[in-house]
Amino acid sequence: DGVGEWIFERDEYLKWTTEEDGSHPVIFCEGDPGVGKTHISSLVMDRLQDEAIRSRQNVKVIGLYCDYLDRKEQTIRNLLGALLKQVACIGDIPEDIRQVFEAAKGYLGGTGPRLSQLREMLKTAIASQEQLFICIDALDEASPEHRVDLLDALREISRESPSIRIFLTGRPFVRSDVEKYFPGVQVISVSPTTDDIKIYLTRKLDKDTVRDAMDNRLREDILRIIPAKISEMYVEISSTPIGVPTIH
């Protein structure tokens, strides 16, 4: 629908998708809650999958969505296991890894593979792929200890498989974690754009079933005033320091 598609015109994205030397393997999209990071992450995954189908290239795309409400289940073992499962389902992986993976699925109430085993299995499975994109959304919603463990595992995988590309999103406070594990990471700040707001409003107005309630002048005013006000509000809020309230 056009909203958020500016990401595909950014130099950071173009380098990330086209450079073969692995000099720009990671993008981190940062932004405050509600600015559209998850939407952009979905756009990126869809675009990568569509381009792979059209070009008939052996390109695979896998992803994760971290959820604050599901922190107890989203342990580092489960996160890496989810990535491994996706790799196993989308392409050929070494038979020994597949056998271990199939055996691990049979654990009911048991311990399953150890974390070190999962990391090695995932590294080996990914290394067997010609090109792989990993998209992880809402990194900030993972618990701190599992977030850094995930970044550490991704760094190790990236070092051993230079052809992989990693796309991360999260709130600004996790940027330091990302930069610690991926120095030189390309950072894209996400904020409401006037064009995105206009596209969204236009779509809503076009679906309005009460046509007589609005004339062209009112429509033009809505498309002119609301995007400008929202942009002003966002700039004001994002530039306001947030402190701890003092009780007197």
Detailed description of the structure:
It is a single chain. By secondary structure, the chain is of the alpha/beta class. It folds into two domains: 187 residues, Rossmann fold; 44 residues. The chain contains nine helices and five strands, in the order αβαβαααβαβαβαα. Helix 3 packs parallel to helix 5. The relative contact order is 0.17. The C terminus is likely disordered. It comes from Choiromyces venosus 120613-1.
Describe what is shown at a glance.
By secondary structure, the chain is α/β, with parallel strands linked by helices. The protein folds into two domains: 5-191, P-loop containing nucleotide triphosphate hydrolases (Rossmann fold); 196-239. It contains nine helices and five strands, in the order αβαβαααβαβαβαα.
